[in-house]
Design a protein that fits this description.
The structure is a single chain. By secondary structure, the chain is α/β, with parallel strands linked by helices. About 50% of the residues lie in helices and about 5% in strands. The protein is built from 22 helices and seven strands. The chain is globular, with a radius of gyration of 22 Å. It starts with about 25 loop residues before the first helix and ends with a helix.
């Protein structure tokens, strides 16, 4: 007999994308209908992303007001509206495993998209944007030109870019660094020293966004770690594969996982822990890679040695205590607890870390930004990203704090662009570790 949901801790089953049933059209259609019918009878997730309102409206407007009245070609808009934020699975759904209903809505959407990819039904441009390492190397090399061309105020080129690539001209795109964080680290790591010494060693996995687009986050992490006596090394063998997960290229994600993990494991074998600087990448290394490669011992080993940067600083604070020198900052902080930080199931580590700053006012907003990788930049889905993100931005505005911090740089960028009434005027919202560096006056 089935229990009511949410009475046990949720578990997630591996994504067995090589099984013949995974892409079988009939079995996929049957599973979509089974899950949609359960969602239709529950509707607890109505106020998350737009997938669920689309589904429920479609059912309510159907001939018999049930899933059986829907045609299979009506499923696509529901799938298209999913950003793979995982919040339905993590925070709302009462029927996730180990419940007998065995619902995993995000991974079902991923399965549907994988079938679309097999049938060549997905748009081409988002996949080209997912080639982060290729794009990033070009972007850094030509950063002055590309940053000028893609500036939101450059109306002519943004209209041209929209026509050629379908990247919405209204989106504030991330800027490229003038040098990679990898290059900065190599040139400067030996110059940064503060005297304290702990028996701790980490290797920073800087992530593609920090390496190519937001070097300042990496610099802040390096300085705060060094200030607290941690031996710091750096490795960036390549992107974690999250952009390819969004594009449902699962073999490519597996390829990235194997390549990146082989490099990071060398450091783990030397006694180092891995510290990630972006929420999505931490989620990939800790959870998504092991679900895609459940029998890979190296991936399992790596997942047990990965820390989010906020999580790692909190661990120091709880065990050895943070290095002295934190001072008051010139305003309050609104922490946006990004979806992929929440999905790591580690608590609100950004808030816990920032509490160490003397007399700081901290507010937390836990709501999806709506960006979802390329979802937030493409013309086809940008309006939906605005619709999902605007209530979150409104909550942030209402806190009236000087600073907004998010572990997800794209979420922070999107919410910052949607903010109208606060003092926040950064090109991109700060990462929480940048607030810590500011408090340390680093």
């Amino acid at each position: 007999m089935s229990k009511e949901g949410s009475t046990e801790a949720p578990i997630r089953h591996p994504v067995d994308f090589n099984h013949p049933d995974f892409l079988d059209p009939k079995k996929l259609d049957d599973e979509m209908r089974r899950v949609f019918d359960i969602c239709h009878g529950c509707r607890r997730c109505f106020n998350l992303c737009d997938s669920f309102p689309k589904l429920f409206d479609m059912i309510d407007e159907s001939k018999n007001e049930d899933v059986e009245s829907l045609k299979s070609n009506q499923f696509k808009p529901v799938v298209d509206a999913c950003t793979l934020c995982d919040m339905c699975f993590m925070t709302k759904c009462p029927y996730v495993p180990p419940h007998d209903f065995n619902l995993d809505f995000p991974h079902l959407m991923l399965r549907y998209r994988t079938a679309q990819r097999k049938n060549n039904e997905l748009p081409k441009m988002p996949y080209q944007l997912a080639e982060i390492d290729r794009n990033g190397k070009i972007g850094v090399l030509l950063s002055r030109v590309i940053n000028w061309v893609t500036n939101i105020k450059n109306n002519f080129f943004r209209k041209l870019l929209e026509a050629l690539t379908q990247i919405d001209k209204r989106v504030r795109l991330p800027k490229y660094n003038s040098e990679t964080f990898s290059n900065f680290f190599e040139k400067n790591v030996k110059k940064i020293s503060f005297g304290r010494s702990l028996d701790r060693k980490v290797v920073i996995y800087s992530t593609c966004f920090v390496n190519f687009n937001k070097k300042n986050t990496g610099v802040a992490a390096l300085k705060v770690l060094k200030k607290n006596g941690v031996v710091v090394e750096h490795a960036y063998p390549g992107c974690c594969g999250m952009p390819f997960l969004e594009q449902a290229d699962l073999p490519k994600v597996v390829k990235q996982a194997k390549e990146v993990s082989s490099e990071l494991l060398k450091w783990i074998d030397k006694g180092y822990e891995v510290v990630t600087l972006t929420a999505s990448c931490g989620l990939m290394l800790k959870f998504e890679w092991p679900l895609l490669l459940p029998d890979n011992g190296d991936i399992k080993k790596l997942s047990k040695h990965v820390f989010d940067i906020d999580e790692y600083i909190v661990d120091i604070a709880n065990k050895e205590g943070l290095a002295p020198g934190l001072s008051e900052i010139d305003g309050g902080v609104t922490v946006h607890n990004a979806c992929h930080a929440r999905a790591q199931n580690m608590g609100i580590k950004a808030r816990d870390m920032l509490k160490n700053i003397p007399n700081v006012k901290i507010d937390v907003v836990e709501r999806c930004a709506g960006h979802g990788g390329t979802f937030g930049v493409m013309k086809e889905t940008h309006d939906l990203a605005i619709k999902v993100g605007r209530p979150t931005a409104r909550q942030i505005d209402n806190k009236k704090n000087k600073y907004m911090a998010s572990d997800c740089p794209l979420a922070g960028k999107h919410l910052n662009q949607l903010s109208k009434d606060t003092e926040i005027r950064h090109d991109e919202a700060l990462h929480p570790i940048e607030i810590m560096a500011k408090a340390y006056k680093l």
